[in-house]
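User: I've been trying to design a sequence by hand for this structure and keep getting stuck. Would you show me what you'd pick, starting by listing the structure so we're on the same page?

Assistant: Good idea, let's start from the same input. This is the structure you sent:
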């Protein structure tokens, strides 16, 4: 079984072995003491961990998270990572994200558009160790390329691609081929894996900057 980052464990919670991190509960997830289950059906990054993709994280990394929504996944990330910058452009989920950040001193919510990195470049430190992206809108490869500037040379892009957000009418496999090809402009792709077991028509991608 692949090693998990420090601060992420597989633990028996509610009679079932589950991924878990330590922190304040956020979405009604089962808990055991300070440990909270990380539900891979509600989190693409959780699915990438559960499917044992080699995400290259050891714990304590600086993370730029694009598409934080209400904070379901980024709350787990901030539980085991270092400074975690969470970008979300929709005001409604961003309000929930603020509450999620309150007990997490390492989580910094940013009400910003991930297609306009210049608007948060003065806040996010350069050379982050990982970009986690789950924006689920058209142009997912472009967003990853535009934010590559923040990533350390040996950093990792952990990208969830939703085929239907690019084009509902196309075969997801064809959409994924196009996204992979576009990403190659700025990234070397290390691993890809369909996440269908947990998220239909989604692809998980691990890449590093070229
Ligand atoms: N990552 C979240 C999680 O696992 O908890 C779920 C993210 S949801 C699938 C996609 C989110 O990306 C939405 O909240 C949407 O508002 C946000 N989003 C889409 N395009 C964006 C952009 N250009 N900038 C910032 N946020 C964006």
């Amino acid at each position: 079984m692949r090693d998990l980052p420090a601060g992420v464990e597989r633990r028996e919670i509610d009679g079932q072995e589950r991924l878990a991190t330590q922190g304040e509960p956020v979405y009604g997830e089962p808990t055991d003491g300070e440990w909270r289950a990380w539900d891979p059906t509600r989190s693409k990054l959780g699915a990438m961990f559960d499917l044992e993709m080699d995400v290259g994280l050891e714990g304590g990394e600086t993370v730029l998270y694009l598409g934080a929504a209400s904070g379901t996944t980024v709350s787990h990330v901030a539980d085991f990572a270092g400074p975690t910058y969470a970008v979300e452009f929709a005001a409604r989920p961003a309000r929930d994200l603020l509450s999620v950040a309150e007990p997490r001193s390492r989580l910094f919510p940013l009400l910003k558009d991930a297609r306009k990195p210049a608007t948060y470049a003065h806040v996010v430190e350069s050379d982050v160790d990982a970009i986690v992206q789950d924006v689920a809108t058209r142009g997912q490869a472009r967003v990853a390329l535009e934010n590559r500037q923040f990533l350390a040379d040996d950093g990792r892009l952990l990208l969830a691609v939703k085929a239907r957000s690019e084009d509902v009418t196309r075969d997801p496999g064809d959409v994924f081929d196009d996204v992979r090809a576009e990403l190659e402009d700025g990234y070397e792709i290390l691993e890809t894996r369909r996440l269908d077991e947990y998220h239909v028509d989604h692809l998980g991608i691990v890449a590093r900057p070229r």
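That's my pick for every position. To get oriented when you compare it with your attempt: The radius of gyration is 16 Å. The CA atoms of residues 193 and 204 lie 5 Å apart.
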